[in-house]
Amino acid sequence: MFESIPVEVGLVHEGERVRKQDMQVELGGPSVLEKFEIVRVRKMDEIIDGTIEITGPDISEMPEGKATPIGILVEIAGEKVEPDLEGVVERRIHEYSNYIEGFMHLNQRYDIWIRLSKKSYKKGLNSLRYIGLVMLDLFKNELPIIEKIQITFITDPREIQPLYAEALKTYEARDARARGLSDDDVSEFYGCALCQSFAPTHVCVITPQRYANCGAISWFDGRAAAGIDPKGPIYAIPKGECLDAEKGEYAGVNESAKQRSMGEVNRVWLYTAFGYPHTSCGCFEGIAFYIPEVDGFGIVLRSYRDLTVNGLAFSTMADSTAGGRQIDGFHGISLEYMRSKKFLDADGGYRRVVWMPKESKERLAEFIPADVVPAIATESDVHNIDELKNFLAEKHHPVTERWAADAAAAEDAAPQVQVFSAGDIPITTPGFRIILKNAKITAEKVIIQPIRPHTKPGGEHN
Fold first, then answer.
1. Which of 274, 304, 279, 303 has its CA nearest to residue 289?
2. What is the pLDDT of residues 403-456, one digit of tens each?
3. Which of 3, 90, 331, 354 has the smallest number of CB atoms closer than 10 Å to its CB?
4. For the residues of 356-396, what is the DSSP string, one character each?
């Protein structure tokens, strides 16, 4: 099937990583502002089937080790192909391109990040045409409803700019369609396993009010995908009994998570970042990160390049968030989920959000309660946690009410015994020495028990 491709193509290569020192070229990625991939449905007479076009420099003409702008336009047609399928087919670009040896595709929509390895380049993978040929074959074989398809790769920045603006409008129109539907209105949710090659225990649950973490699959997209390919990577999840309406726990979701994660994930709470939060792969659009010093959340999107208010970059926190794990306080999210009324609903929603980049705040302002908008700090307002505390107090952010309640509860609590207070407290464990800096440890009760040696037969002691 892929005799004309100079490298191997198959499932075995899905999930491969191409490190910076091993890459020949990078397409898109964090340093490129305008990049996109989009699928558009056309009429049958508007497509020349099998066409692959490259507008701008091809791989062999790109400087080694440098990031290059990229736009990928896939146009499809067929008697049963409807516009509802655009987002579904679009997400398959990620899956199919990752079958190519030494070709790494991450993220989606306007966040795509692609790398080609030096090894595959030396084998002859020196043109985007090879990538197009793989996608042409896989799309038509895996999705037979596609009768005609043509693919255009754009690497000329002047050509990308207008298409990028048009793509953003298309994404927004798709997303807006799902906002009028609530999770209570449907009997089925949907799951997506497209990212399990990178995070095997990740279980993505898609509901009307909780988009896929990648931001590319809505509930309507999930329904369309499961309808045309019931055994495919996007599948139906019967809701089952609602076990906790506030946290968003459903029996059907728990059962699906258990099966799809090979028993690693047994419970999922859809509307909270604590307890049993929704897992994250690596393609999430943003991170909600807990800031214990103020008992609130910061929000950072992938596009933000500076350090956040807690002194960490997106990339650093992404390492703690990704991998299909359930990590308290580090929560992978999509931009559209941030527009949902269920956004961190069990945790207080936007009344618990205390910091976000200025650009993100402006972009989401209409979805944030009007009285909270001025009380959420940005990088223009504060630069560290101490400044954040002062800002929140000055603006009377709703989270400060939690501070007062916690302080009152502490006064009413039983007196605590201070056990340790020191600059450094060493802890010895096998093979490691852990030192707690400027630590203070308190406890309600201290119990001291003698350790009695165990006696072996014959009177010897352990």
1. 274
2. 877 776 666 655 554 444 444 444 444 444 455 555 556 666 666 655 554 444
3. 3
4. --HHHHHHHGGGS-TTTGGGSB-TTT-SSHHHHHHHHHHHT
Question: pTM to 2 decimals?
Answer: 0.70
Does pLDDT of 133 surpass 50? yes
Cα distance between residue 452 and residue 454, in whole Å = 6
Structural domain that includes position 223: 181-284+333-339
Cα radius of gyration (the chain)? 25
Q: Are residues 45 and 160 in the same domain?
A: yes
Where in 78-202 does DSSP place strands (E)? 103-106, 113-117, 148-154, 188-192
CB atoms within 10 A of CB 241: 9
Residue 245 has pLDDT above 90, yes or no: yes
Based on the domain organization, do 115 and 194 belong to the same domain?
no
Strands 67-68, 249-250: pairing is unpaired
Residue pLDDT, tens place only, 169-216: 999 888 887 787 899 999 999 999 888 777 889 989 999 999 999 888
Torsion angle of alpha carbons 366, 369, 370, 374, nearest 10°? -100
CATH of the domain at 215: 3.40.970.20
